[in-house]
Amino acid sequence: xxxxxxxxxxxxxLQRHYADFCSKTEAALDPVLVALVRRAVAAVHGLGDAPDExxxxxxxxxALAYARRIPFEHTAISDAEAAALVAxxxxxxxxxxxxxxALADAECRAALVGLPALAAG
Length: 121
Prior knowledge:
Helices cover 74% and strands 0% of the residues. The chain is mainly alpha-helical. The relative contact order is 0.19.
């Protein structure tokens, strides 16, 4: 169970809604990309190794570079970088990708501060 989901244990309805939202976000994307993005963002936070990018296409490598910037450099992402990713993923998948990267960042931050224990009181 994710750190945020665990922290929501006191509100089972909200916990289910959060889990459903995460699940629907991931379902909109290729499962391989989901795993790569989660791993890339976790590596930025020092929570694991960066994914091996050997053999990945240029679009996927660009997506991972973009995802790695979400935690600490999101305001520096240019319109051109976003447009290139929209061209690669399509508008709807770009939105899902952006949500996935933001959720991965939030999950890492929640784990780093021990959010489930903090929420439990």
